[in-house]
Design goal:
The complex is a heterodimer of chains A (about 375) and B (about 375). Chain A has about 375 residues and is mostly helical. Chain A contains 16 helices and no strands. In chain B, the strands form 2 sheets. In chain B, strands 1, 2, 3, 4, 5, 6, 7, 8 and 9 form a 9-stranded mixed sheet that branches. In chain B, strands 10-11-12-13 form a 4-stranded mixed sheet.
Chain lengths: ~375, ~375
């Protein structure tokens, strides 16, 4: 396996699209329920927690870009190979792949649960799973450029949903945020940590970096993506906490979806139905990118063609969707992924950074010695 | 090749429709009003009275009343369903009416049932009956000229749109209920000569119905909740200060010392905690007023007359507010939400029980600022 990836110019993408890729992956099933999890930790000052989380993610992104810049055109798998050698490197890369598969799985089962609760209680999870996995397989087989297209289109096709939040937004009860700054710092940090599942998605940068054409122009779209996602989570958190009060938020699952229940038009009374269906468009880019990430990793490490691994993954995922349909099972899986992902996405880059720098110094010195000799 | 793909697409689309349960309108009984009571025959059970829409070619009657009993609301619905050939669906319930007895025992448990069900709309209206919900719904329904469910819904909605009563949707009730330092309220429907009418606003302590305030007071209460836009109100003001500006028309009751004016009110009441130690509050009523009608002719020649009227109206409103406040203080329920202000000033440390102890001791100073804006096309 090469450390650096040679990418043909016809499958590379412009840096501008990173914005859509990262926001698409960040905003998924997590947003539907995140205000509740933040509130349970940070109370009325939840918005500060979102602020902390977003700033922290910006720092992580900065470190990730810094690491990637130390190489010509490497991805995380190449870097692992370079730093840890073949066996250990592949092992750590495999953890990444497992993380991608697990996240993909959790997104699928969460969405299926939501559909079954809100719209079709009798729908077989197998059917829902099949529909989504067919779509995911189809677009992933199309290659990276197709996937980026999907992200871009669905970004535009889903963001109008924000307009439906205007009605609850004007009814916000600002008293709920008073008195401000009462939550102690540890709780605020716990609240920030509660956002981690929602904000997962920045790790795709480690994989997609070699495919970017104009690497100089990538800072702006990347940071903007994180800020945009942060802003959306902030908006939904503020509206949720202002519209409902704490007690209600603490007891409601998927608070964001409940907010859409309060918008009424004369031609459609129950917009939550529309929104839950529309949410499929938020989910699809998610599962496509995660499926791509997992299978691309398998191809890089184990040299298994992506076509084979996509099909090979789709079948166990489908069976999993079918078997796991209880709320607490799903919650348990999400909790586990949350823990793994937290260390992998938010902490691991900081461990990687010194190793990369040491290795680079060491290489330079070696080259220097060679030159002297 | 393209044809083949299109063919497959069409086939899949057709087949996919069978993945979910189909529900035909003709086979549904759409519940739009539900009454909840404690059953008279079986005191440990609930009794629900459902008014449903059915779209059946065989009968002309579109709406129909059903009832059933059970320990839970869903069970009662199931039992009612046994008396109907339609599948009853709760997704379009517009109004839920609670009997007096059950409202006095507390209703939050039933409201949680509603919120738990994702199919139920949170914007449905709630109301209480001063007898049983069943009586109002059944008697009203037997009067064939109107559909009682739609009638009651329209009645409450209309008052709500006029800002005469505060919002009383399911969401508003639960919101206020869960806020520490405020108590909810719901409209009360009474039976008057076989016609149901909106009679008062019921005040809750927690989730228990404890007493009523009048509809005029409901408007004043609404002003403390939101900015009210020209809601009508009739006030009684003394004649004496206006004596010299009155026209020489003969009033109905010449001996009376008072006269009546009907005004439109626009504005709101904002409250503030002024003395945290002594629990002193100040509520500032800031309103614009339109004069619609007076029981005697008032000639408003210049600003001086307007000032006098403003002053008298201010006094009358202040008096009304004080009666309202005394009433709710006696009930020990805080629909205005002074407890919320206290909670904010008190670093978020306030429990409902604490506020129950403190609320009877608070004092409120009402300051009314009336501004007479229009009085129609004649002076």
């Amino acid at each position: 396996m090469d450390i650096n990836v040679k990418v043909k110019s016809n499958i590379s993408i412009r840096a501008f699209y990173l914005f859509f890729i990262i926001t698409s992956l960040q905003l998924g099933v997590g947003v539907m329920g995140v205000p509740r999890f933040i509130y349970l930790e940070a109370g009325a000052d939840s918005w500060i927690s979102v602020l902390i989380a977003t700033s922290y993610i910006l720092v992580v992104l900065f470190v990730m870009i810094f690491i990637l810049k130390q190489y010509d055109n490497a991805d995380i798998f190449g870097i692992h190979r370079d730093l840890f050698g073949k066996w250990l490197g592949n092992l750590i890369s495999s953890v990444y792949i497992i993380y991608f598969i697990a996240t993909l799985f959790s997104v699928l089962i969460t969405y299926i649960e939501v559909v079954r609760i809100f719209i079709f209680p009798t729908l077989s999870p197998l059917v829902m799973g099949l529909l989504m996995i067919i779509l995911a397989v189809y677009s992933t087989l199309g290659g990276l450029r197709i996937m980026v297209g999907v992200c871009f289109l669905f970004f535009i096709l889903t963001h109008w949903l924000l307009l439906l939040l205007i009605e609850p937004a004007v009814q916000i009860d600002w008293d709920h945020f008073l008195p401000m700054f009462q939550t102690p710092m540890p709780d605020l940090l716990k609240g920030a940590r509660a956002t981690s599942y929602t904000f997962f998605g920045i790790e795709i940068l480690f994989l997609i970096y070699p495919f970017i054409q104009n690497k100089k122009g990538m800072h702006f779209p990347i940071y903007m993506a994180a800020i945009w996602s942060g802003l959306l989570v902030m908006i939904t958190t503020i509206i949720t906490l202002g519209f409902f009060n704490g007690e209600q938020v603490a007891r409601r699952e998927w608070t964001l979806l409940s907010l859409f229940k309060f918008q009424q038009f004369s031609f459609i009374e129950r917009l939550d139905f529309v929104v839950v269906a529309e949410w499929m468009m938020v989910i699809i880019p998610n599962i496509i990118l995660l499926l791509w990430g997992a299978t691309y990793g398998i191809k890089r490490i184990y040299k298994l063609p992506q076509k084979v691994s996509i099909y090979a993954l789709a079948i166990p995922l489908l069976i999993g969707c079918w078997l796991l349909d209880e709320h607490f099972q799903i919650q348990w899986i999400i909790d586990k992924i949350n823990e793994l992902g937290f260390w992998l996405v938010y902490v691991y880059p900081f461990l990687l950074l010194p190793l990369v720098l040491i290795k680079k110094k060491w290489k330079q010195r070696k080259r220097g010695e060679k030159n002297e000799a | 090749m393209r044809l083949k793909r299109l063919f497959f697409l069409c086939i899949t689309l057709c087949l996919l429709t069978s993945c979910v349960d189909s529900t035909q309108l003709e086979k549904l009984g759409i519940i739009h009003t539900r009454g909840v009571d404690i059953s008279e025959e079986k005191p440990s059970e609930l009794e629900t009275t459902l008014i449903i829409f059915q779209f059946n070619a065989q009968t002309d009657m579109v709406s129909k009343t059903l009832s059933g009993t059970g320990h839970t609301i869903k069970e009662a619905r199931e039992q009612a369903n046994n008396k109907s050939s339609f599948a009853l669906t709760p997704g379009q319930i517009r109004l839920e009416l609670y009997g007096k007895e059950i409202a006095q025992k507390g209703i939050i448990n039933y409201l949680n049932t509603l919120t738990r069900d994702a199919k139920v709309s949170d914007t449905m209206l709630l109301a209480i009956s001063d007898t049983t919900a069943k009586e109002i719904l059944q008697v009203g329904q037997s009067d064939t000229t109107m559909d009682i469910g739609q009638f009651l819904h329209g009645l409450i909605r209309q008052e709500g749109l006029e800002d005469s009563i505060p919002e009383v949707a399911l969401h508003d009730f639960t919101h206020i209920y869960f806020d520490v330092g405020q108590d909810p309220f719901l409209p009360v429907i009474t039976m008057d000569d076989d016609a149901p009418q909106l009679a008062a606003l019921g005040i809750f302590r927690g989730d228990k119905y404890v007493g009523d305030i009048t509809l005029d007071e409901a408007l004043l209460l609404n002003m403390t909740q939101k900015h009210v836009g020209f809601a009508p109100l009739e006030l009684e003001i003394p004649r004496a200060p206006l004596e010299k500006y009155l026209g020489d028309t003969e009033p109905i009751d010449p001996d009376s010392e008072n006269m009546y004016v009907r005004i439109g009110i626009k504005g709101e009441t904002t409250s503030k905690l002024t003395d945290p130690e002594q629990l002193g509050f100040r509520s500032k009523v800031d309103i614009d007023v339109d004069l619609h009608e007076a029981s005697e002719e008032v000639v408003i020649k210049d600003e001086k007359v307007a000032k006098v009227i403003e002053e008298e109206l201010g006094k009358a409103i202040k008096k009304k507010y004080e009666t309202l406040f005394k009433k709710v203080q006696e009930l020990n329920a805080d629909p205005i939400g002074y407890g919320r202000l206290y909670r904010i000033k008190n670093n978020n440390k306030l429990t409902t029980e604490e506020w129950r102890e403190k609320f009877p001791e608070i004092t409120v100073d009402f300051q009314v600022d009336v501004n007479l804006v229009h009085f129609g096309t004649i002076q």
